[in-house]
Known about the structure:
Bound molecules: 1,3-dihydroxyacetonephosphate, iron/sulfur cluster
Shape: globular
Number of strands: 12
Order of helices and strands: HEHEHEHEHEHEHEHEHEHEHEHEHH
Structural class: alpha/beta
Strand order of the largest sheet: 2-1-3-4
Distance between the termini: 42 Å
Radius of gyration: 19 Å
Largest sheet: 4 strands, parallel
Helix content: 40-55%
Strand content: 15-25%
Amino acid sequence: MAMIEEILALKKERHATILAHNYQVPEVQDVADLVGDSLELSRAAARLDAEVIVFCGVDFMAETAAILSPHKKVVLPEKGAWCPMAHMITPDQLHDLKALHPEAAVVCYVNSTAEIKAKSDICCTSANGVQVVASLSEKQVIFVPDRNLAAYVARYSKKQIIPWNGYCYVHDHFTPEEVRAARERHPNAEVLVHPECRPEVIDLADYAYSTAGMARHAHASAAREFIIGTEVGILHRLSKENPTKKFIPASERAVCPNMKRINLGKILWSLEDMSTEIKVPEPVRLKAKLAVDRMLAIGRSD
Length: 302
Ligand code: 13P
Ligand code: SF4
């Protein structure tokens, strides 16, 4: 049997659903039941009627699914697929930051560990950070771990945003020169970038969106060409959904090696073996769930 057929047969047998992030390799996106951004995949994990969720993404994404769905088995096909930014703040560091700003609310980007979520008031993703901060009554907001998303949210808020100095090494690498050069080569293209990019890169873009926001915009826009300032994996989905439009990466170097660690063989093996289950200790899960649930009650801003 071809590997894809084996995966589909085992998926049925196990009552499993395969979720894939927009940065996954094409063949993984193509075998998934749902391809989406962090927010869409979190919502799906909570609502889906499946016994097993095969989460093709990085650690914090599978962890968020496990936080929301304690009665489902959540497997990450490659346990070594992790997001470096999510580990750039420790619970002790957050504890010290909170002690310095006792009046502040704590917002954690979903790209964070379960322990950090458990110590935060509310979670956000790149799709709803602005709305999450606006929903808070506090005038001061500690925002962890991404300094760039914090700066992006601060553009739309009168609150004092206190950022942590974390960053995504893929998005932080885009330069204004790359965006200017891409625009010169493609003067009719719209420039879409992710809010994890540096502020000076966002300043040069037409729009900043989460990965799902980019997919929606590309579909709705009358433009024929788009320069894409995020991880290159999303180009597969964009081109598949919009075959007559052209998508140009703002940088060919924008590859997240962790997202690329999952392949069809590992999906099949994880469904067979089930040994790569992601578990969150119950006391941490319950606290983290409060922060994620508060976020899920709020809509998205893109
Ligand atoms: P999205 O939520 O926009 O998909 O982003 C997740 C991520 O890891 C970006 O690097
Ligand atoms: Fe983490 Fe960046 Fe990879 Fe997204 S692209 S998973 S933020 S390292």
